[in-house]
From TrEMBL:
Active site (record annotation): 421
Name of the top EC class for this enzyme: translocase
Assigned EC number: 7.6.2.1
Similarity comment text for this entry: Belongs to the cation transport ATPase (P-type) (TC 3.A.3) family. Type IV subfamily.
Region (Disordered): 1-24
Keyword vocabulary terms for this entry: ATP-binding, Magnesium, Membrane, Metal-binding, Nucleotide-binding, Translocase, Transmembrane, Transmembrane helix, Transport
UniProt source species: Nyssa sinensis
Subcellular compartments: Endomembrane system; Membrane
Topology with respect to the bilayer: Multi-pass membrane protein
rRNA processing is among the record's keywords: no
GO molecular-function term, one example from the UniProt record: ATP hydrolysis activity
Domain of life of the organism encoding this protein: Eukaryota
Domain annotation P-type ATPase C-terminal: ranges: 879-1125
Protein name (database record): Phospholipid-transporting ATPase
Length: 1218
């Protein structure tokens, strides 16, 4: 009966491992860096007045220049311990104590350094070409009252420039004037954040006239603004013009890398240039990640250093003991002119010098080509296997998987904790207006998919409601209730409340309309899908928002005064109090045509209810019940409210608002404080409920990952009820689990909050959270100590989490969380997401993966060991910050269980094989030292030692790292439990390294003593006994054959490349030795191979020695596989007769796609951005249409192609003119 070595289970009788972190451990979660103080003063259109030396507009993304390449490049290479070690060995080999010629060690080091520097130079040269193309792009600058074209690199701060439609902004510009009469322009920020929806920017009314070159030359404004920083969405400053100070905001700033749309041209003043632009400042300080296995590899290298030191010390002491004048035949009895290394009169010097000799002699024990080989393997794995996997290609959006770094491939095979955003990651982020509550009445008859899942969970059968024939369903709107459609709301009990509800939807937003002024053809450009869905809902209810200017919103209202009447109404927008993650609400102050002043506000229920004139009236209580009902159905909710304003009260408030807006210091904070003064005493209108459906395959993906031993945590900003039901729908939690809920929505906490004492609230919350954590932790321990207790899950909201992350409670939270199968954190901020990730990463020291799709997930993605970005509806900021990018959450199954597991297995085998083959090679030399009186006499020829790593054993290990797989991709997903071997680090433990070391010692003894013993009485064809170089050449031949055959014994998969590489390496040795021994007249190996091959002994030894050497490994592997099999070996036995179709997911099987999908995939494989950053300002801008035309693939042109094509055309014309 066979027993599995590791099984598919765990430790405490229930297949679960009980986690416990010592309470004494300190977990640091990091801190926020403060921004530099001060401001800069810029004189526009007056270069002489700008006495301060600002940076130029030329950018450089290269790492080196012509002077720094060699010193800096070599410094980068010698930061690696192994390279520094070989530099020391190379220096030692040039000294008299070295037994080998300098070439022996210098050649391999030079080859490795040369390969690395060539790679660095090529990548930097590509960056240089991109920099040149960008820096030489033309821009129109005002010179002597006319527009003059100059390269971007010659721009200076204060210059006045003109940018035409579809052009890119060459620097950060202050927007002055445009061809649009209302002083606005439309920009696309895709190169900054990936968002393709247009943004509106509005110049100050004072500067609208500075449009023509004549008028622009009169502009002499002074700008006082913040110092350069990397915040893309904030800007504070003042423009002093004609002795008047005007506040500047992000609405007047045009950022480098953005492009102008739907505007003929604009005029702007340069504020920040070159590396001081916001987009370039965002390119700094990208966290550098190293895989856990790579860090363990450093420990292995240090261990080998220790072994090397012990070997050298043993030999040095042996030399000091052996040296004696009685060995007169060695010349040791000579009193004068004796080499200090062999002077019996000073044994301490003998030991010291012999130590250095042996260090040089045994230097190959550290594999010099290890790092280069591993880098090459990882690069090919990511670029050829991950990027080309059709199982991770999303045909609908034409998005393949993208490995943005190759450093972390094997880390994908050891992930234990996944931290996931909800919206856009687990769900589709395709928002649809589904239900609403107006004046205490629920409208909308549909049943959502999560609501159906909840009902099924409770054992209820839900029949899907049949939609009425008049139901409207378009993008963003999936609402069915005849009571509100086509003016029927006029007959409801609360028509005035309905009217305010619809007007709030139509007016309180920052959406931009595009296209014709008809409901069927108009398109809305919104900052988020929620915004677009709400405006679309207003349109379908008869309040059609069709035009926007900086100060007006135009709405076509139907059925307001009487049924069938349609009228266009213009609302003047006086102030917009924008949404942010702190405020969690958005407000608009507008003036009706009849002069009525109204503040409309929409936001999260928690912040709206705090600001109501009476939140405990019947309407407030009823709406709160409706919010809970919508949340339980997994719907996203917003509350709507309004407030009528008096003219005097508004004027007083507006003065404070303008003053706050003009402030250079803490502007955002002051604006929030001013907003609090007017956003109060609101009247509740109702709430909206938007459905965001689950992504395809999410439940099955989560179930598969859970079986693989991966614990999934959901970190979301949604309400707890919504998050819980999404978790149920995803199968993250179920009714069989024991749920620990720590919520701030309790009567006791509400009572304390109602008193308003912030100190008391904080004290009470911390104490409550502490007690809840202790109670849950104790209960969890009781469940974990039972044999068949339920799985555990923790649900905690943002307020409680804030106190739970306190240093005094952090470890208790961690201990509780680690013993839960899943954790759901609700109402959390982006910072809390990063803190929770860091808590597990640093506190539990487990390998973590964060996955998200929005800008609010960037900090979480960068905090984890591995960051995965989803290219979804919320732009590309998450992708730009990630290590790997995929289009759908379900692709995590292939990324982790297939590519991650294979990469981990391959890198482990590559590293252990490198260790084995170099130790075997060096130990043969070590055994020889015992027979030479520890003198340091070399056993191998210098060239044999030099080429052992770089030619005779180099290629097979790379093939092993590329093509090795234990089971197919299909079986990896069918048996996700196999993934647990990576979590446990089964294949790179010290026990595994020790096993390889043991057999390396055994094989080296066989290789040395069998050859030495068998050749001691052997004779060559001329009757002479074999000499040193005959024996060493025979031994080296056996070493090369043995280690190459041993690699084949490690393989689970054999391809033609395995046979070619192993056979080719052995053949390369014979070809080399034939040529070398024939031409090396002054070497001891001259004609040695010809003499050896003329004897029967050579062929017998070549057959028997490797067989005997590998016999121990063969028996060990047989016993291990039969009696102590790994999990993958059991699966291999079960499916040993099934064919392997694992390559079916790669590009070679293109005929599995439809013609349209094949074309999309071909476009997706064109050269594209691989940098940590994307965008025009960075290296390698994607210009796929050019590459597509080169490869005969039809691809639509992209906006960012324009300048590249222009620069290419200009260069080609120049070349033709020459």
């Amino acid at each position: 009966m066979r027993t599995s070595r590791s099984g598919f289970g765990g430790n405490n009788g229930r297949g679960e491992k009980v986690e416990h972190i010592p309470s004494s451990r300190t977990v640091q979660l990091g801190r926020v860096q403060p921004q530099a103080p001060g401001h800069r003063t810029i004189y526009c259109n007056d270069r002489e007045a700008n006495t301060v030396k600002f940076k130029g507009n030329s950018i450089s993304t290269t790492k080196y220049n012509i002077f720094t390449f060699l010193p800096k490049g070599l410094f980068e290479q010698f930061r690696r311990v192994a390279n520094l070690y070989f530099l020391m060995i190379s220096i030692l080999s040039c000294t008299p104590v070295s037994p080998v010629t300098p070439l022996t060690n210098v050649l391999p080091l030079s080859l490795v350094l040369f390969a690395s520097l060539v790679k660095e130079a090529f990548e930097d040269w590509k960056r240089l070409q991109n920099d040149k193309a960008i820096n030489n792009s033309p821009i129109e600058v005002l010179r002597d009252q006319k527009w003059e074209r100059i390269p971007w690199k010659l721009l200076q701060v204060g210059d006045i420039v003109r940018v035409k439609q579809d052009g890119f902004f060459p620097a950060d510009l202050l927007f002055l004037a445009s061809t649009n009469t209302d002083g606005v322009c439309y920009i696309e920020t895709a190169n900054l954040d990936g968002e393709t929806n247009l943004k509106i920017r509005k110049g100050l009314e004072k500067t609208w006239d500075y449009f023509t070159p004549e008028k622009a030359s009169e502009f002499k404004g002074e700008v006082q603004c913040e110092q350069p920083n990397n915040s893309l969405y904030t800007f504070t400053g003042n423009l002093i013009i004609q002795k008047q100070t005007l506040p500047l905001s992000p609405n007047q700033l045009l950022l480098r890398g953005c492009s102008l749309r739907n505007t003929e041209h604009i005029v702007g003043a340069v504020i920040f240039t070159g590396h001081e632009t916001k987009v370039m400042m965002n390119s700094m300080n990208v966290p550098s990640k190293r895989s856990t296995l790579e860090r363990k590899l450093d420990k292995l290298i240090l261990t080998i250093f220790g072994v090397l030191f012990c070997m050298c010390l043993l030999g040095a002491i042996g030399s000091g003991v052996f040296i004696n004048r009685k060995y007169y035949y060695l010349g040791l009895n000579v009193r004068s002119n004796l080499d200090p290394q062999f002077n019996p009169g000073n044994r301490l010097v003998v030991v010291f010098l012999t130590m250095f000799t042996l260090i040089t002699l045994y230097s190959p024990i550290i594999p010099i080509s290890l790092y280069v080989s591993v880098e090459m393997i990882k690069f090919i794995q990511s670029n050829q296997f991950i990027n080309n996997d059709l199982h991770m290609y999303h045909a609908e959006t034409n998005t393949p998987a993208l490995a943005r770094t190759s450093n972390l491939n094997e880390e994908l095979g050891q992930v234990e904790y996944i931290f996931s955003d909800k919206t856009g990651t687990l769900t589709r982020n395709l928002m649809e207006f589904f239900k609403c509550s107006i004046g205490g009445e629920i409208y909308g008859t549909g049943v959502g998919e999560i609501e159906m899942g909840v009902a099924q969970r409770n054992g209820m059968k839900v029949e899907e409601v049949q939609k009425s024939s008049n139901a409207v369903h378009e993008k963003g709107f999936n609402f069915d209730d005849a009571r509100l459609m086509r003016g029927a709301w006029r007959n409801e009990p609360n028509p005035d409340m309905c009217k305010e509800f619809f007007r709030c939807l139509a007016i309180c937003h920052t959406v931009l309309p595009e296209g014709e002024d008809s409901p069927e053809r108009i398109q809305y450009q919104a900052a988020s899908p929620d915004e677009s869905a709400l405006v679309t809902a207003a349109k379908n209810f008869g309040f059609f928002f069709y035009r926007r200017t900086p100060t007006m919103i135009h709405v076509r209202e139907s059925h307001v005064e009487k049924m069938g009447k349609i009228q266009d109404v213009s609302y003047e927008i006086l102030n917009v109090l924008e949404f942010n993650s702190t405020r969690k609400r958005q407000s608009v102050v507008c003036r009706y045509p009849d002069g009525r002043l109204v503040l409309y506000c929409k936001g999260a229920d928690t912040v709206i209810y705090e600001r109501l004139v009476d939140q405990n009236n019947d309407l407030g209580k009823t709406t709160r019940e409706h919010l809970e009902q919508f949340g339980a159905a997994g719907l996203r909710t917003l509350c709507l409210a309004y407030k009528d304003l008096s003219f005097d009260a508004y004027e007083n408030w507006n003065e404070k608002y303008i003053q706050a807006k003009s402030s250079l210091r803490d502007r955002e904070k002051k604006l929030d404080e001013v907003a609090e003064l007017i956003e109060n005493n609101l009247t509740l209108i109702g709430c909206t409920a938007i459905e965001d459906k689950l992504q395809e395959g999410v439940p099955s993906c989560i179930e598969t990952l859970s079986r693989a031993g991966i614990k999934i945590w959901v970190l979301t900003g949604d309400k707890m009820e919504t998050a819980i039901n999404i978790a149920y729908a995803c199968r993250l939690i179920n009714n069989d689990m024991k749920q620990f809920i720590i919520s701030s929505e309790t009567d006791a906490i509400r009572e304390v909050e109602s008193r308003g004492d912030q100190v008391e609230i904080a004290r009470f919350m911390k104490e409550t959270v502490k007690n809840e954590l202790k109670k849950c932790h104790d209960e969890a321990q009781r469940y974990l100590n039972t044999v068949s207790g339920p799985k555990l899950t923790l649900l905690i909201d943002g307020k409680c989490l804030m106190y739970a992350l306190d240093p005094s409670l952090r470890v208790m939270l961690l201990n509780l969380s680690l013993n839960c199968s899943s954790v759901v954190c609700c109402r959390v901020s982006p910072l809390q997401k990063a803190q929770v990730t860091s808590l597990v990463k640093k506190g539990a020291r487990r390998i973590t993966l964060s996955i998200g799709d929005g800008a609010n997930d960037v900090s979480m993605i960068q905090a984890a060991h591995v960051g995965v970005g989803i290219s979804g509806m919320e732009g590309m900021q998450a992708v730009m910050a990630s290590d790997f990018a995929i289009a759908q959450f379900r692709f995590l199954t292939d990324l982790l269980l297939v590519h991650g597991r294979w990469s981990y297995l391959r890198i482990c085998k590559v590293v252990t094989y490198f260790f084995y083959k170099n130790l075997t090679f060096t130990l043969v030399q070590f055994w020889y030292t015992f027979q030479t009186g520890f003198s340091g006499q070399r056993f191998y020829d210098d060239w044999f030692q030099s080429l052992y790593n770089v030619i005779f054993t180099a290629l097979p290990v790379i093939i092993l790292g590329l093509f090795e797989k234990d089971v197919s991709a299909a079986l990896s997903k069918k048996y996700p439990e196999l993934y647990r071997e990576g979590i446990r680090n089964t294949f790179f433990k010290w026990r595994v390294v020790g096993t390889f070391a043991f057999f390396s010692i055994y094989q080296s003894l066989v290789l040395y003593y069998f050859v030495i013993s068998s050749s001691s009485k052997g004779l060559n064809s001329s009757g002479k006994i074999f000499g040193l170089w005959d024996v060493s050449t025979m031994a080296f031949t056996c070493v090369v054959v043995t280690v190459n055959l041993r690699l084949l014994m490690m393989c689970n998969t054999f391809t033609k490349w395995h046979h070619i590489s192993v056979g080719g390496s052995i053949l390369a040795w014979f070809i080399f030795v034939f040529i070398y021994s024939g031409v090396a007249i002054d070497k001891g190996v001259f004609r040695v191979i010809y003499v050896l091959m003329g004897t029967f002994y050579f062929y017998l030894a070549l057959l028997l020695v490797p067989v005997v050497a590998l016999l121990g490994d063969f028996l060990y592997q047989g016993v291990q596989r039969w009696f102590f099999p790994y999990d993958y070996q059991i699966v291999q036995e079960v499916h040993r007769h099934e064919p392997d179709y694992s390559m079916a997911g790669l590009l070679e099987i293109g005929n599995q796609l439809t013609p349209d999908e094949a074309r999309s995939f071909a476009i997706a494989q064109l050269p594209r951005e691989k940098s940590k950053h994307t965008g025009f300002a960075f290296d390698s801008p994607g210009y796929e249409s050019f590459f597509a035309s080169q490869q005969g693939v039809s691809a639509p042109q992209k906006a960012w192609d324009v300048i590249r094509r222009a620069s290419m055309r200009s260069r080609s014309k120049t070349s033709r003119n020459k």
